Amino acid sequence: MSVIFLRVTEIVFILLPFLANGQEYGTPFIRNYTTEEFNGGIQSWNIVQDNQEIIYIANNFGLLQFDGTFWNIHPVRNGTKIRSVLVGSDQKIYVGSQADFGYFSPNAYGTLQYYSLADSLPSKYRNFDEVWRIYEKDGSLYFFTFKNIYVYAPGSIPQTIEPKYPLEFSFLVNKQFYTLQWGHGLSMLEGNELKLIPGGDFFAKRQIASILPLNNTNILIFTIHDGIYIHDGLSIKKFAVEETPIITSSVINQAIMLKDGTFALGTQNNGLVIINREGKLVLHIDRENGLLDQTVHGLYQDVHENLWLGLNNSISMIELSSPFSFIDNNVGLIGTGYSALQVGSILYLGTNTGLFYWDQKASKRHFELVPNSAGQVYKLTSINGHILMGHHNGPYEIINKKAQLIYPERGAWEFVSFPRHNDYIVMGSYTGLSLLQIKDQKIHFKHKFKSFEESSRVLEFDDKGDLWMAHGYKGIYKLKVDRELDNIKSIRFYNSHDGLPSDYLNNMEVIDNRLIFPASQGIYKYEQDKFVPDAQYSTLFPDNEHIVEMEQDVLGNIYFITRPKVGKILFDKFGKATTDTQVFNKIKDLLNDDLGIVRALDADNILFGAKKGFIHYNAAKRKDMPPYQTHLRKVLNTSTEKDSLLLEGTKLYSDNELVLPYKLNSLRFVYSSSFYENPEKTEYQFYLENFDQGWSSWIQKTEKEYTNLPEGEYTFHVRSRNIYSTISEAKAFTFTVLPPFYRSSIAYVLYSISAMFLFVMMFQYLNKRFKKEKNLILLNKEQELHKKDTEIKEIADQSEQQIVKLRNEKLQSEVDHMNRELASSTIHLINKNELLNTVKRNLEDLIKKKDFEKPQDDLQKIIHNIDQNLSSDNDWKQFELHFNNVHGNFTNRLLEKYPKLTPQEVKLSAYLRLNLNTKEIAHLLNISVRGVEISRYRLRKKLLLDRNENLTDFMLKF
C-alpha cells in the first residue's frame, strides 16, 4: 500500500468509535444584529415569518420587520412593548402588547398600519395585562393574557373567556389549547371552559415554558426551572436528559421543535441549547462562542431552516442548515489555520500562533495551546505512531500533548516516510533536506543532505522510490538517494522547458496512489521524462485556473482549492468526474490565502484552513438550495427635492396598475432578498421593460433610480443571486407614465384644431396679402398703362377711333348683308313652298275629278317632281351655312350637347331661334300646324325642359 492509503486508513480506524456519537467540531455560522442595526428596543420576544418570507419580531419598541436588507419598526398606538406576534391566514400581522391587542395591515400606500381590536371590548374586559401568546384555530384568533382569553372571529367583536384561576403561559399543541392555571394545574380549553387534564395538578406550582409534541400520543412539557416531562394522556413522567451542567442548570424560556426533530431551548442563563429526542446535548451556543447575550426570549426556525433568536439585548440568526461551522477564537483557537491532524479523540490544529488541541471526550468544546508550540505551525503528520510538527522554529514531536524540539533546524516544512525504510523520515526545511531516524521509540536527527539546499516545502516519494520536491517559484525536482541513505546521487530539475506551463506556482499531490502536479494553469502528470496535461483532471478546470490544494478522502472524493473557487470532485459509478462548487461559495472568501489547506479527517468531516482558524465541513449534512424570494419593497418618486413614497409592501403586487402623471416620471425602486445568509453578498439584476435593452449586470446595490422616463407603459423586473449562485424568480411591477398635458390626447386634439384655425387664418392672411399685392401690381400696371395710353392717346386717338369705326362698320355691313340674305332665303323658301303646295293641291284636285281626260300618269309624274322640289335640301344647306355664321355655329353646338336630335328637330330648333311662328315653321317643314305642335312637344322631351320653361326662349338663349 502507498503511504497516503496507510495514513487515511489509520485515521479512519482511530476515529470510528468517536465519530459514531456525532460530536460537532465547531460553531455554526451566526449573524448577530445589535439594537443599533435594527433601531429597536433591547428585548425581542416572539418571531414569525409571512408567506413572502419577511421576518416579524415582537420588540420592546414595536413590531420589527426585516426583509433581509432593511429593518423597519412599526409601533403600536400607545407605544407599549409588543410581546407576541402571529401572521394570520389572512396575512394580517396580529400582535399583543400591554393592555392591547390588534393587527397590522397595509394602508393605501402599502405601509403597515395598526388597528386595535381591544377597543371594541366592553369596558369591564379592557383591564388586562400583557398578551403573551396569540394562536389561530378554525379561523378564529385567540389572544392569551394572564387574566382572560379573548377570541376574535374576523369581522366581529372579540369574545371574552374568564377563567377561575390566574393564568400562566398558554400553548397550542396538536390543535388543542393547553394553559396553566396557577395553583390549579395544567388545563385544556374545551369550548369556553378550562378543564384540568389527567395529572395536570402536578404543575399547579410549576411554571411551564413550552409544550411540544413528542409523537402522536405523547407531549413534552418543558418547565422553566423544574426540568422536562412527558405526558401520555393519562400520567406524567420525567423526560431523561443528559446530566451535563449545561442542560441541568438551564432556566428555559422557550422550546421549539426543529425540522430535524431535535429540540431547541432558549434559556435565561445559558444561551441556546439543542438536545436530541434522547435528551442528549447536540449543540450549545452562548455568549462565549458567538451570541451577544446569554438570555434567549424567543425562538423561530424559518423556511430555510435558519434559527432566529430573540435575545435580551440583540437578535441572532444561526445557520443550522449549513454544513459549515467555525473553529475560531470562540472555542479558544487563535490565528490563521495552516494544518490539522486527528489522533484518536484529540484534534490538533496548527495556526500561525501555535499548536492547539481539543479532546473531544470533554464535555466542553474548547481548544488549548500545546505547551512549547507558540509560533508558526506549517505541518502536522503522524508517522509510525509519532506526531510530528513542522514549525518555524524547527521540527517538533508532540508527546503527551507537549511539543519537544527534535533538533535545532529553523523552518521545518514537511515530513515523509522513506519507502522500504520505515524507520527513516525525510524532512524538508527552509535550507534543504535532512534525514531523521526512529530509534528506541524516539526520533533522532541523522544527517543533512549536503548536495541539495533548496527550500523544500512539498515532498513526496513515488512508487519507484524517487523523491520529488515541488518548488513554488522554480519548478519540480526529482532526487535519487543512494542505498545507504547518505547522499543524493542524482538531481533532475524540470521547469517550463520540460512541459510545465511556467516556472511558478507548481505543486504536487498524491491522488489515487499516483503523483499529479497542479500547476499555474492546469494539472500535469510525469510521463517519459517530461510533463504532459493530465486528461482526467485538466478538463475539470479552466486553462487559466490555478489549483492551490487538493485532498482525497477515503471515499475517493477530491476536495480542492483554486484561486477563484472551492469545491469537490465527485465520481459516479462509471468513474465520470464532476465538480461541485455551489455550496462552497459560502467559504471561498474566508480561507487562508497564504498556504491554502484542506484536510479530510474522514468521509464526513473536512477542515479548511481559514483566515480565522478553521472551517469545518460536514459532508453528511447536505445543504438544500430551496427557492427564495426577491421583493420589490418600495417605489419612490424622486422628482422633487424630498423623495415621496408611492407604494410599498404588498400593494406593489396588487391588481391595480400604478398610473403616474408625467411630473412624477423620476422613480427609485428599492428591493431586497429574503435569503438571510450573507445578505451583503447577495447580488441583484434588474430590467425596465420598454426602456432598458436587457438585464443589467449583477450588482450588490439594493436600489435603482430612473429619471425623466418618457410616457408609456413599463414593467420593472428584479431578481437576486445569493451566495450559492442560486437565482430567485424575477419579480415584476407594471406602471404607466402618462404623457405631459402638451402631449396628451386632448392636447393633440386642441393642437389639431389650433393648427386648422391657424392654417385658415394664415390662408386668409396670405390670400388677403396676395390680393393686396395683386391689386397693387395691377394698380401699378394700370397706372403705367394709363400713362402710356395717355402718351399715345393724343397721337393715335383719332386714328384708332377711325379704325374702330371702320371695323365696326365693316362688321355691321357683313352682318346686315348676311341677315338680308338669310331673310331673303327664308322668304324665298316660304313663298316657294307655298306656291308648290298650292300647285300640289290643285293637281290633287284634278286627279280626283272623274271627267278629267288627261292621263293620270302624267299628272302623277308632275306631282312627283313637285314633291322632289319640296324636299330638296339645297336651299336648306344654303340657309344653314348663313344661319350658323350669324348665330355662332348654333346647329353644331346643339348637336354636340344633344346628339340624339333628328335633322327635322334641328331645323325646327333653327326656326325657333329665328322666332318664326307656327304657321311659318309648318310651311318651311312642309307639315301641318298640328305636326309642328307635335314636333315641338317631342323636342322639349329630348331637351329635358321643364313644363314651365318656354321652348322659344331656350333656343334664343342657347
TrEMBL record:
InterPro entries in alphabetical order: Ig-like_fold, Sig_transdc_resp-reg_C-effctor, WD40/YVTN_repeat-like_dom_sf, WH-like_DNA-bd_sf, Y_Y_Y
A Pfam short name: Y_Y_Y
Statement: the UniProt record of this protein carries the keyword Cell membrane: no
Domain Two component regulator three Y: 676-738
Keywords for the protein's UniProt record, in alphabetical order: Coiled coil, Membrane, Transmembrane, Transmembrane helix
Organism superkingdom: Bacteria
The UniProt record lists the keyword Transmembrane helix: yes
Transmembrane segments: 746-766
Coiled coil: 778-849
Protein name: Two component regulator three y domain-containing protein
Organism: Chryseosolibacter indicus
